[in-house]
Design goal:
By secondary structure, the protein is mainly alpha-helical. 61% of the residues lie in helices and 2% in strands.
């Protein structure tokens, strides 16, 4: 097992394929950079299913451990992000099934399908140097997160993947094993339900909901490196 600390190695310019090749050789810096690139998407996908921060973190850790110990299973036929997301969703959905708290599909499909198709506009997140404005936006983000948490799970995960993570209809359908038409219908219903409790003034915060950065990102990354027996990557 390696014990030396890995220093910055200038890997930022490498694409995911090149990083995977280095990760197969147990390059800790490459493993860490892969995690930093994909933490947010995996966390959002898992949280969309599980509705719980701590359990979503566990799913992300488990996803990376499985992926990095079975890199031979990654053939490069799909993007690394797609492969990792599929592992994360499978793990999250498996945990959800074990909870036995799934919402019956017949109840979801029975929800009235009236109302406008759009709940909020989704502009790019903006950075604000005004502390008061930043605090206000953080509060708006928390309100939106709570509203998303209240969605029925099958609507919530589609909303998270489509509107928050900005996956395509086809990619979302593939990950969830649904028809594209079903994805469109559930997204429409999710937006309509959110419209009942949210105003368009919340739109600026949507791309920032459920972040996976700072302490959370570091916590996930450090835990995975420890489980894999790899040294931490220290930036210089």
């Amino acid at each position: 097992m390696q014990t030396a600390t890995v220093t910055a190695t200038g890997l930022d310019g490498l694409d995911d394929g090149a990083l995977v090749e280095r990760a197969r050789s147990r390059d800790g810096a490459a493993v860490q950079l892969i995690m930093q690139r994909h933490n947010r998407r995996l966390f959002r996908a898992a949280r969309g299913v599980l509705n719980d921060d701590a359990e979503a973190e566990d799913v992300v850790q488990e996803t990376y451990v499985r992926a990095f110990t079975h890199l031979d299973g990654f053939r490069g036929e799909a993007q690394l992000s797609t492969w990792l997301t599929r592992i994360a969703l499978n793990e999250a959905l498996g945990r959800l099934r074990r909870r036995r708290l799934t919402v019956a599909l017949k109840d979801i499909d029975a929800i009235d399908d009236q109302g406008e198709a759009r709940v909020i506009y989704l502009p790019s997140a903006r950075q604000d140097s005004d502390p008061e404005a930043a605090a206000a936006q953080a509060e708006v983000r928390r309100l939106l997160e709570r509203a998303v948490d209240q969605l029925p799970e099958h609507f919530r995960v589609v909303f998270m993947l489509r509107d928050v993570e900005e996956m395509s209809v086809e990619e979302t359908a593939s990950h969830l094993g649904l028809r594209p038409e079903t994805v469109k219908t559930r997204l429409h219903r999710a937006r309509r339900l959110l419209r009942q409790s949210l105003d368009r003034t919340l739109s600026a915060a949507v791309n920032d909901v459920f972040p996976c950065a700072g302490a959370r990102c570091a916590r996930i990354t450090d835990a995975v490196l420890k489980r894999l027996g790899l040294p931490e990557h220290v930036e210089e």
